[in-house]
Amino acid sequence: MIECFATWCPPCRAAIPHLAQMTKEYSNIYIVSVSQEAIGTVQQLKDKMQPMKFYNLAVDQSGQLQKLMTQYQVNGIPHAFIFDAAGQLMWHGHPMDEECKESLEVLNIV
């Protein structure tokens, strides 16, 4: 699962404990939160927020995250993309939506 976020985004910050819990609950699934901000900015938030220490973070300054969001007409964050083992998109939407959890449950069994 790829979750798009920004350090300045209040809904993204609100999702952090939820994402940390998902990482623990769905241990067979790689979950990464990706920001387009500078690595130092993301690191500062990670240092301040304890739950962020429990999941993967990445910084994309190459524009690939924006291309993914544009491809699927995503205009807001936080936003999650769930791909199956073959790389096919299974679901995308807000990471705290029930459909996100249901998709992860299906993948966690496989």
From TrEMBL:
Instruction: Supply the InterPro entries for this chain.
Output: Thioredoxin-like_fold, Thioredoxin-like_sf, Thioredoxin_domain, Thioredoxin_ResA/DsbE_sf
**Source superkingdom:** Eukaryota
Specify the Thioredoxin domain's residue ranges: 1-110
Which protein is depicted?
Putative
Species of origin reads: Hexamita inflata
- What are the leading ranks of the lineage? Eukaryota, Metamonada, Diplomonadida, Hexamitidae, Hexamitinae
